[in-house]
Amino acid sequence: MTDGNTTDALTRLEQEGEIAADYLEGLLDIADLDGDIDMDVEGDRASVSIVGDSSSRDLNKLVGRDGEVLEALQELTRLAVHRETGDRSRLMLDIAGFRAQKRAELTELGEKAAEEVKGSGEPVKLKPMTPFERKVVHDAVAAAGLRSESEGEEPERRVVVLPAS
Predict the structure, then answer these.
(1) Average pLDDT over all residues of the chain
(2) Residue ranges making up the domain that contains 87
(3) Most buried by CB count within 10 Å: which residue of 2, 17, 118, 138?
(4) Among candidates 31, 34, 29, 66, which has minimal Cα distance to 50?
(5) Total structural domains in the chain?
């Protein structure tokens, strides 16, 4: 049984997903790209994915080098949602499975860093990462039973995995 607040939040996130999907469908039409849009709610944010068949490499243009275009499209989509709702959106956009694959790689990186710290007892500094990448690594380190923190200024902000206290 869900309470009213949970239902309201879910409805709001579903609405964000619908607005984002409409915006992205328009973008795909303008760019003359094929892709299907999947919507979901993951935790406390709407999640929208643009997926295509494996033979379609066109969607990779929307990912860009190291996900740079994807990040920009996510911000534009969040702005489109904000324009419609008046609320700041934390919507997550994935294109052609890029973020899902990146999440798996980063989870593995966080787990390996945690193992290294457990073995050596010394902190491990990772390379600079985007906020999305750092969040995934922080979650993986926490799941491994250690703690981590971010240090530095963008774009050089990085995760430091710390030994158990």
Answers:
(1) 92
(2) 4-96
(3) 17
(4) 34
(5) 2
Of the residues 70, 96, 122, the one at which a domain ends? 96
79-98 per-position pLDDT tens digit? 999 999 999 999 999 999 99
Q: Of all residues in the chain, what percent are helix, strand and coil, respectively (each to 5)?
A: 55, 20, 25
Q: What is the pLDDT of residue 66?
A: 86
Q: Are residues 81 and 8 in the same domain?
A: yes
Q: Report how far Cα 162 is from the mean position of its chain's Cα atoms.
A: 24
Return the CATH number at 31.
3.30.300.20
Torsion angle, CA of 92/93/99/103, rounded to 10 degrees?
10
pLDDT value, residue 10? 81
What is the DSSP track for 63-89? H-GGGHHHHHHHHHHHHHHHHHHSS--
**Residues with Cβ within 8 Å of residue 101, at least 6 apart in sequence:** none
Q: What is the C-alpha radius of gyration for the chain, rounded to an integer number of angstroms?
A: 18
Taking the C-alpha atoms of residue 142 and residue 147, their distance in angstroms, rounded to an integer, is 6
State whether 59 and 106 are in the same domain.
no
Strand residues in the chain grouped as ranges (E): 36-42, 45-51, 92-95, 124-128, 147-151, 158-162
